[in-house]
Specification:
The chain is mainly β. The chain has 3 domains: about 1-95, 2-Layer Sandwich (STM4215-like), CATH 3.30.2000; about 100-220, no CATH class; about 225-270, no CATH class. Helix content is about 5%, strand content about 45%. It has 2 helices and 20 strands. Strands 1-2-4-3 form a 4-stranded antiparallel sheet. A 4-stranded antiparallel sheet has the order 5-6-11-10. The two termini are about 40 Å apart.
């Protein structure tokens, strides 16, 4: 069950420091969700959801009290209450940074971070199914936090085509690619932001384009334990019938062999079968000409 946003409360400025000619500020927000029961498996990334909640400033938004400072990083932390997240927004003034006469020649900006994913644990690090001593999945499933990298790239570009962004956003890389020094294989990266703002400087019109990529070292493929109340035997014309437990019709899901047939109750946990699903579109990121180094 997805969480329903309850409120976003601005706590206030919690940090202010000056480094050489730049000023840095950090604002904090409490993001509260309604109590809708235990988190479900559809909550792949609550931290990202909290960072994008209505009322949280967007990346590169101006500071509410310091117009020359812009948001350069946003991250969320869990609190003791699982329905409340603490979101930090870091702002920075651009003083001291060198700008080219033509904005297209400005330095590309990189912000590395991490994301937290709440996962239902179905297999361990060795690919062994996580089952109880009776070879059944845990109900409710064991949940764990998984951490992985995120990357925000900001660069000035001469043009921006919404139709292109529409094609690429929420897509995975369909092949090996190196981005900002990180080499990834197919389906390890997901482009979750491809936005732009039209600006003008020194008589030049340009777009400040933001790319946000979330990485998954295990790829974004979904792997699910093959199980069900029914089995299907190819040798019997593929007819469905109840799985059996001690000679009686099963009332709880039983492990299947990947072809529809029920596995024996004593079948080793490490030999359980997982089904792989690819749910995100895959596109060729090479045409985006993302920087290969920093």
């Amino acid at each position: 069950m997805a969480r329903v946003l309850d409120s976003v409360e601005h706590i206030g400025q919690v940090a202010h420091r000056r480094e050489r000619s730049a000023r840095k500020y950090t604002e904090e927000y409490l993001v509260k969700y309604q109590d809708q029961g235990a988190p479900g498996s559809d909550l792949d990334d609550i931290a990202s959801v909290a960072c994008g909640a209505a009322g949280i400033p967007a990346m590169y938004a101006a500071h509410p009290n310091h117009a020359n400072a812009y948001a350069v990083a946003i991250w969320a932390e869990k609190t003791e209450n699982r329905y409340v997240w603490l979101v930090h927004v870091a702002y920075e003034t651009p003083q001291g940074r060198q700008y080219a006469e033509n904005p297209i020649n400005d330095e590309v900006q990189f912000v590395w971070g991490t994301r937290t994913t709440i996962l239902a644990i179905e297999w361990d690090k060795d690919g062994k199914a996580v089952l109880n001593s009776a070879y059944d999945p845990f109900d409710p499933p064991i949940q764990e936090d998984l951490y992985d990298l995120t990357l925000i790239i900001v660069r000035n570009e001469a043009s921006y085509t919404p139709a292109t962004a529409h094609t690429y956003v929420n897509s995975l890389n369909n092949g090996n690619i190196t981005i900002a020094g990180l080499a990834i294989t197919a389906r390890e990266g997901k482009l979750v932001d491809f936005s732009a703002e039209k600006l003008e400087r020194n008589g030049y019109d340009y777009y400040r384009v933001v790319y946000r990529i979330e990485f998954n070292a295990n790829t974004w493929d979904k792997q699910i334990l093959d199980q069900g109340i029914y089995e299907r035997k190819p040798a019997e014309d593929g007819k469905r019938k109840y799985c059996k437990v001690e000679g009686k019709d099963a009332t709880e899901p039983q492990r299947l062999d990947g072809s529809g047939e029920q596995l024996a109750e004593t079948h080793p946990a490490q030999a359980s079968v997982f089904l792989t699903f690819r749910i995100y579109p895959e596109t060729n990121w090479s045409s985006l000409s993302l920087p290969t180094s920093m």
